[in-house]
Structure formats: structure tokens, C-alpha cells
Amino acid sequence: MRRIAMSVAASTMTLSLAGCGVLNATGSSTTATPTKGNDITVGVLMPDKINTRYSNFDYPIMKAKIAELTNKQGQVDYENAASSAATQTKQMQKMIDDKVDVIILDSVDSHAIAGTVKKAKDAGIPVIAYDRLAEGPIDAYVSFDNELVGEVQARTLLEGLGSSVDSSDKVVMINGSPTDPNAKQFKTGAESELNGKVTIADSYDTKDWDPVVAQQEVTKAINSLGRNNIAAVYSANDAMAAGVIKALKAAGVTNMPPITGQDADLDAIQRILSGEQYMTVYKPYPDEAEAAAEMAVYKVQGKDIQFDALTQDTVDSPTNKDIPSQLVQVNAVTKSKIKDTVVADGIYTVSQICTAAYKTACAEAGLK
Fold first, then answer.
1. Which strands sit side by side in the sheet containing 232-235, from one edge to the other?
2. Which of 45, 166, 199, 205 is most solvent-facing, going by the fewest CB within 10 Å?
3. What is the sign of the dihedral through the CA atoms of 217, 284, 145 and 194?
């Protein structure tokens, strides 16, 4: 087993998904006695509506997988907290009161939700942490190697600056929300690649991953540094990258410097084609969402072998150690890689990407 320490300050996470044996396996996968049948209710709690991935990918994929695993008898109780930790606490408490069988939780505030996670545990309801590692007695965790995400973003940003990149080149960092543990890890990974190769001239931790706040932060950086003195902008996700671009355009910038992103939002893919955004990180949501659905169903049905086979890594949160986990690989997407990533995986069709405004750019990128 490999254990990954994940703390508030930093993480030394490295990706390793090699098999290492099944944990606590008893009996065979065909003879395990389920603790519950197919008639189960899975609570799904997503954190915000700013990122389109939750409604477009994560939730629908989970719902379809749960239906498949339960012979269409399983039900899904879905809520989105719209970036409010207080709202998510109420939503989760209602699920506990309604006695759902298991909860998949993508937390708004990983620390604030810990007490409610414990309430679920006390009520006999397992909690699967999704994408962000919530504190409290989590039963399992599925996400991506978040430091690696930041490293990939930063390395691709440096590639975008070209061979003439210099340590005096000024980079502005627009990081994610300070209440999101993933944001800290993206930042740590990115800084490990950027430090010493460029100058991080300004760095902001952006409340609630809000694109409007990101736009304001870049405007401050432009006023401080000058619009022609920003060599690149590290944006932790695609939604904020849109705010970054708005700020640069408002300042009169027409040739965009390399700008990073994450989540492979459709409009980000289109911005990459048009040259406004340099890259995004594609995280294969079907793999992550299906794994979470499988963990949830197998956990409540007592299928230990299947559950353990999915969680052959472990992570530590600030409150709990050795949480069974699965980490999914990620890919950098630049213009030349769109076809081999989000199109090849069926995330978007060429017709969805190549609307009228992008026909020429699509043709140049070989998207037909």
C-alpha cells in the first residue's frame, strides 16, 4: 500500500496506481453477502454551479452508473450547494435525516463539513469524498493527483513561453479558493515548477473560485505591473481563466500571453482554438464519477472485494489517516491535443466545438 499525506499546508502526493493487492478481502466477488440490495438511495452533493462540469458530467455519469449497478432500482438524491458551505451543511443534514444509504460528497469547505460527516458516520451512512478531500471520518476518496495537476499546468505554461523564457519573466498566479484543499495542492505543484524559472510577481487565492473576483485580481496585477509586463497568467481553472481574459482585454491586450486552466470546459476548448487561452487540464470525469458511484454502491452492498479493488491507494486528511482512495490520471490539452483527448473520449463532438465562430480555427487544428 502507498500512503499519501494530504495536509492543509501541502502535499507530497505522487501518482501511483499500480496494483498492490486487495485489502481485507474475504470470500469471492460472487459470493459476498450484500448488506443492502439494489433498492438503495445515494445522496450526491456537489459544491458549486460556476463550474459546468458538475451538472454536465459528474452528476449525470454517477446517476447512470448507479442505475446500471442496481438494475435501475437505485435512486439518486442530488443537491448543489452553489458555493455556500452553510447550504451544503443543510443539504447533507437533510440527507442524513432522510436516511439515505450512502453519500458522495464534493465539499465546498473541507474543514467546515467535518462535523456533518461525523453525524453521517454516527447514523451509519458511509461518506465517499469526491474530488475534494473532506475532513472527518470519510470512508473513501476518489480524485486526481492534485499536485500533479498544478505541475502539468505550470510545465505547459513554461512551454508556452518558449525557449527564450527567463527568470525575470513575470507570471501572475490566480489560484483557487482557500477553503478548497485541492487549490492548495494545485498551487504547490505549480510553484514547484515555476520557482526559479520565472518570477511569480503576484499571487492571489480566489474566493469561491469566482471568475468575477479573478478578473478583479488580474486588473490589480495589471495596474501594479503594467499590461506589457505580464509574461503569462497561471489560472487554476477554466472559469477563472475567462475572468483573466476579460481583465486583459479591458486593459487593451490583444495578443494574449499563455493562460492556463483546468476542467476542459467547452468554452475553454474553444478559447484554446482561438488562441485566447493556451491550455487546460483534462481530467477524465467518466473515470472519476463512475469510480465514485461504484464505491458508493459496493460499500453499502457489502461487496468488499470490489470496493477494495477500487481503493488501492490511501490518503491522509488533517483529521483521518489511511483513507481508502483512488487517484485518476490527467492530461494537458493544448490546441494540438484537443482531438486526441476530449474528442477521442467522447466528452465533446467536433460539431459541439466547431460552431460557426470557430470553423476556421477548427480546420487549422485538424478538427473535422
1. 199-205, 170-175, 232-235
2. 166
3. negative
The dihedrals phi and psi of 196, each to the nearest 5 degrees, come to 90, -20
Q: Provide the β-strand partners of residue 316.
A: 5
Cell numbers describing residue 183 = 487549490
DSSP code string of 216-277: HHHHHHHHHH-GGG--EEEESSHHHHHHHHHHHHHTT--SPPPB---S--HHHHHHHHHTS-
Residue with cell 447512470: 64
- Residue 303 corresponds to which amino acid? K
Rounded Cα distance, 186 and 153, in Å:
9
pLDDT at 94 over 50: yes
How many whole angstroms separate alpha carbon 231 and alpha carbon 161?
Answer: 8
pTM for the structure as a whole: 0.78
> Strand, helix or coil at 26?
coil
- Other beta carbons within 10 angstroms of residue 47's beta carbon come to 29
Decide: 4 and 313 in contact? Cβ < 8 Å: yes
The average pLDDT across 208-217 equals 97
Rounded-to-10 torsion of CA 42, 56, 260, 113: -30
Residue-wise pLDDT for 98-129, tens only, equals 999 999 999 999 999 999 999 999 999 999 99
Handedness of CA 108, 110, 111, 112 (dihedral sign): positive
- For 269-288, give one letter per residue: b (16+ CB within 10 A) or e: bbbbbeebbbbbbbbbbbbb
Residues 2/20, Cβ–Cβ less than 8 Å? yes
> Cβ of 297: how many Cβ atoms within 10 Å?
25
Those residues with Cβ within 8 angstroms of residue 366's Cβ, 6 or more apart along the chain or in another chain? 339
- Decide if pLDDT at 18 tops 60: no
Q: 331 - beta bridge partners?
A: 282
What is the C-alpha to C-alpha distance for residues 225 and 172, in angstroms, rounded to an integer?
10
Q: Are 286 and 103 within 8 A, CB to CB?
A: no
Q: Identify the band that residue 36 occupies on the pLDDT scale cut at 50, 70 and 90.
A: confident
Does residue 347 register a pLDDT over 50?
A: yes
Beta strand 199-205 pairing with 280-282: unpaired
Give the Cα separation of 66 and 286 in Å (integer): 13
C-alpha cell at 128: 465517499
Nearest of 283, 275, 278 to residue 342 by alpha carbon? 283
